UniProtKB/TrEMBL annotation:
It holds the Pfam family Globin. The lineage of its organism: Bacteria, Pseudomonadati, Pseudomonadota, Alphaproteobacteria, Sphingomonadales. Residues 155-259 form the FAD-binding FR-type domain. The keyword Metal-binding applies. Residues 4-141 form the Globin domain. Its EC number is 1.14.12.17. Keywords: Detoxification, FAD, Flavoprotein, Heme, Iron, Metal-binding, NAD, NADP, Oxidoreductase, Oxygen transport, Transport. The keyword Oxidoreductase applies. Belongs to the globin family. Two-domain flavohemoproteins subfamily. In the C-terminal section; belongs to the flavoprotein pyridine nucleotide cytochrome reductase family. This is Flavohemoprotein. InterPro entries: FAD-bd_FR_type, FNR_nucleotide-bd, Globin, Globin-like_sf, Globin/Proto, OxRdtase_FAD/NAD-bd, Riboflavin_synthase-like_b-brl.
Length: 403
């Protein structure tokens, strides 16, 4: 267990906030440059998120600044810490990886800040880093233990065979995965993801997270993947993965999931490929015959890009009170309202507030960041408490050791 931070350390770390605001991104780039000299550490990271224009350096800069700013009130960072721990477990990050990151962080602070990074400052940041690292290591150890001890669970990378590939739309395909060893698989929490280790010719090992798009069944998982422009892993899956392909997979992880028991209405709100965890949640609610109203609301461009529409409609006929509303932003010329889609255009603030039970529902939201920000803002302004608004980010999380 981490020892409490000393008052001197708290004061010194907080004193570096102005320097981090001015030079944080430079520190992060220098930190990554140092870490990536070690191939074992480099291969833990999603390289597509790095570089001068990458999203991860900016996210990490913000995370370090948030940590320094809240060093005396770490309770405010608890949700972020859980998100980091879950991500680390998916990536199979272990205690022995942490010293490399700490060394790179302190070296980067010294290199960028120069004489301003006194020995006192470096010692304070070293103490602060290991305080957080030990919290993460302890939480990750508990998650690894839970995974190993759960029926069908495992640690490390397990071989799965692609059982079948289903073309869901012009840009999304589903891959049904079964374990090569023929043993059961652990029940995931609807909304969680799997982490994959891809070995793509001509590239270092590639790790990616994909949400599970099926309810738990003890036998198999399904992921539904959008082909991203210039997406190395998604392009390989779409072009190369077929029935019989073997993939290395880590156990389900993630802090975003459907509550196990709910007595309130549930609204599943998604945009684009953000439907993947929503379909898993909808399947789970139908499978347990949930006795609450369920609103499934999805927005996409048109019929060509609308994945799993028939499957969702079939599920709706089996649920007690499932209502589906599909928005097509730009319907194709031959699409018929009421048959191919329900509403034209985007999901507006007015429609969402008027057509969902804002006074009592739990909202689960997933989609691109602009969609997500807008939906969360709309619901918050409508008076929905923050503990009833659950959302999943696309892209890198704000974390201190990130993929």
């Amino acid at each position: 267990m981490s020892q409490p931070l000393s008052d001197q350390t708290i004061a010194l770390v907080k004193a570096t906030v102005p320097a981090l605001e001015a030079h944080g991104l430079d520190i992060v780039h220098e930190m990554y440059s140092r870490m990536f000299q070690n191939p074992e550490i480099r291969d833990l990271f999603n390289q597509s998120h790095h570089g001068d224009a990458g999203s991860q350096p900016r996210a990490l800069t913000g995370a370090i600044l948030a940590y320094a700013s809240n060093i005396e009130n770490l309770g405010a960072l608890a949700p972020a810490v859980e998100r980091i721990a879950q991500k680390h477990v998916g990536l199979q990050i272990l205690p022995e990886h942490y010293p490399y990151v700490g060394e790179a962080l302190l070296g980067a602070i010294k290199a960028v800040l120069g004489d301003a990074a006194t020995e006192e400052i470096l010692e304070a940041w070293g103490e602060a880093y290991w305080f957080l690292a030990n919290i993460l290591i302890a939480r990750e150890d508990r998650i690894y233990t839970e995974q190993k001890e759960t029926t069908g669970g495992w640690n490390g990378w397990r071989d799965f065979r692609v059982d079948k590939v289903i073309r869901e739309s012009s840009v999304i395909s589903s891959f049904v995965l079964r374990p090569v060893d023929g043993e059961p698989v652990m029940d995931h929490k609807p909304g969680q993801y799997l982490t994959f280790w891809f070995e793509i010719p001509g590239h270092p090992p590639v790790k990616r997270n994909y949400s599970i798009s099926s309810a738990p069944n003890g036998e198999a998982y399904r992921i539904s993947v959008k082909r991203e422009t210039h997406g190395l892993a998604s392009g390989w899956l779409h072009d190369e993965a077929k029935a019989g392909t073997i993939l290395k997979v880590a156990a389900p992880a993630g802090e975003y999931f459907l509550a196990e028991h709910t007595e309130r209405p549930v609204v599943l709100l998604s945009g684009g490929v953000g439907l993947t965890p929503m379909v898993a949640m909808l399947e789970a609610l139908v499978n347990v015959d949930a006795d609450v109203p369920v609103h499934y609301i999805h927005g996409t461009h048109n019929c060509d890009t609308h994945a799993m529409r028939n499957h969702v409609r079939d599920l709706a006929t089996k649920g007690r009170a499932v209502q589906v509303t599909d928005f097509h932003q730009t319907p194709l010329g031959d699409e018929v309202k009421g048959l191919d889609y329900d509403e034209a255009g985007i999901i507006t603030d007015e429609w969402l507030v008027a057509n969902t039970p804002v006074a009592e529902a739990d909202y689960y939201i997933c989609g691109p960041r602009p969609f997500l920000r807008h939906a969360v803002s709309t619901l918050s302004l409508a008076g929905v408490p923050s503990d009833r608004i659950h959302y999943e980010f696309f892209g890198p999380a704000d974390e201190l050791l990130a993929a």
